[in-house]
Amino acid sequence: MTPLLHVAHLRMVFDGLVAVDDASFDISAGQIKALIGPNGAGKTTLLNVISGLLTPTSGQVALADKPIHGLPPHRVAALGIARTFQNVELFPAMTVLEHVMVGRHLRSRSGFFAAALRLPGMRREERQIHLDAERYLAQVGLSAHADDLARDLPFGKQRLLEIARALATEPKLLLLDEAASGLSTREKKELVNLIFAIRDIGVTIFLIDHDMDLVMSISDEVVVLDHGEKIAEGTPHAVQNDDRVIAAYLGEEPVHA
Ligand SMILES: Nc1ncnc2c1ncn2[C@@H]1O[C@H](COP(=O)(O)OP(=O)(O)O)[C@@H](O)[C@H]1O
Ligand SMILES: [Mg+2]
Questions:
Q1: Contact in structure between 46 and 63 (CB atoms under 8 Å)
Q2: Which among 124, 150, 170 is the end of a domain?
């Protein structure tokens, strides 16, 4: 069966620095797959290539057999890939609900600008977008914060808002870059439940995290990068016992939670 995402011989070089080196792997539809590796391994760079923020130096990325490498981020998003960022990226002066409405406009007929200009005939669609946005906020548990400014949300809730905004684009594949980092133990548990709920509605998940307990407990499969190179791929159990993986993490800070 065609994988949902196919990454082949991907290479990303910055000024002579090889950040991703000949990485190949697949993500099957319906999976929760994790991407791990020491700091600087190239994990975020790989997500940036998949989501269209970076054009790879060479190699291919295909979503359901359609090549997407080199497409701009809005095209990749329209094809069904959404993401969150390692360093939360929100608009400080926009409300929580407005963030999700922006995400939702990707799936509207008129687009964000027509709606923002309040062109005739857009009102009804705008109302629908508003309703949809409220639904996504409810899904991540942020309904009570709809009218708060994003900058006033506590950090853990800002991470949830990024997820709601991503879900509002109706992705097939959701990329999470360290969504659990900086969260309390309780917030992490809630995030894990949310990730399972998202998977259960049919969204495939590819997540980066440093919390090995979290990664190993929720992932169907794990890809391990070290110095840009894929050094292992398999079930959580297999990669945890892989000699190259153990060696890559030796001398690192103990994997921080
Ligand atoms: N835009 C960029 N320009 C130059 N170097 C970059 C850029 N993005 C990442 N790098 C470098 O690529 C390497 C991998 O970084 P990154 O993908 O952020 O690693 P990780 O997410 O695994 O910690 C690092 O050496 C980093 O400094
Ligand atoms: Mg990173």
A1: no
A2: 170
Instruction: For residue 127, give its domain range.
Output: 90-170
d(CA 165, CA 83): 9
Q: Which ligand is nearest to the CA of 38?
A: 1
Mean pLDDT of 44-72: 98
Does 189 share its domain with 76? yes
| Cβ neighbour number for residue 109 with a 10 Å cutoff | 9
Distance 40 CA to ligand 1 centre (A): 6
Where is the domain boundary, 112, 140, 170? 170
Amino acid code (one letter) for 111: G
Percentage of residues of the chain with pLDDT beyond 70: 92
Q: Are 111 and 122 in contact, with CB atoms under 8 Å apart?
A: no
Q: How far is CA 79 from CA 71, 105, 174, 204, in A?
A: 10, 14, 12, 14
- As for ligand 1, residues whose beta carbon falls within 6 Å of it are 14, 17, 19, 37, 39-45
Chain segment 175-233, per-residue pLDDT in tens: 999 999 999 999 999 999 999 999 999 999 999 999 999 999 999 999 999 999 999 99
Residues having C-beta closer than 5 Å to ion ligand 2: 43-44, 86
Spatial strand order in the sheet of 32-36:
81-83, 173-177, 204-208, 32-36, 221-226, 229-234
For residue 52, give every residue at least 6 positions away whose Cβ sits within 8 Å of its Cβ, in sequence order, or none: 68, 70, 71, 72, 73, 74, 75, 76, 77, 81
CA distance 194 to 85: 17
